[in-house]
Design a protein that fits this description.
Layout lengths: L1 E5 L3 H14 L4 E5 L2 H10 L6 E4 L8 H10 L8 E5 L4 H10 L3 E4 L4 H11 L2
Parallel strand pairs: 1-2, 1-3, 3-4, 4-5
Helix pairs in contact: 1-5, 2-3
């Protein structure tokens, strides 16, 4: 299994990778610092990720722009995109679901809660 994490916060990247390794030690986590790097990663890899976890607030290309690009591209549109954000506003969640997001996770403050969320998604 392969995951692309698009998130500009290095601490969040480290915590996410550690939580994934608890859930599935064989899972590869590829990292992108913003939407532009995320799209480049998709274009340069011979195999698409099984999941994309996407932060919302990032420089250069934010989460909405990235999601729109991914869901409008025939090669990438089938990859599930899970919004992974500090925001939990219901209106934002609805917008992302309408744009094609598969799920919405508010970044938890506890590591074990992140592990629980990931277990439920990565089954």
């Amino acid at each position: 299994m392969t995951i692309l994490l698009v998130d500009d916060d290095e601490d969040d990247q480290d915590i996410f990778r550690e939580a994934v390794s608890v859930v599935n030690p064989d899972c590869e986590v590829r990292l992108a610092m913003d939407g532009e790097h995320g799209l480049n990663n998709l274009q340069q890899q011979s195999q698409l990720p099984d999941y994309i976890f996407l932060d919302v607030n990032m420089p250069k290309m934010d989460g909405k722009q990235f999601l729109q690009e991914v869901k409008s591209h025939p090669l990438y549109s089938s990859v599930p995109v899970i919004i992974y954000s500090t925001s939990n506003h219901a209106s934002e969640m609805g917008t992302y679901f309408k744009m094609g997001a598969s799920n919405f996770i508010t970044k938890p403050s506890e590591f074990n809660l992140l592990v629980t969320y990931l277990r439920s998604i990565l089954r």
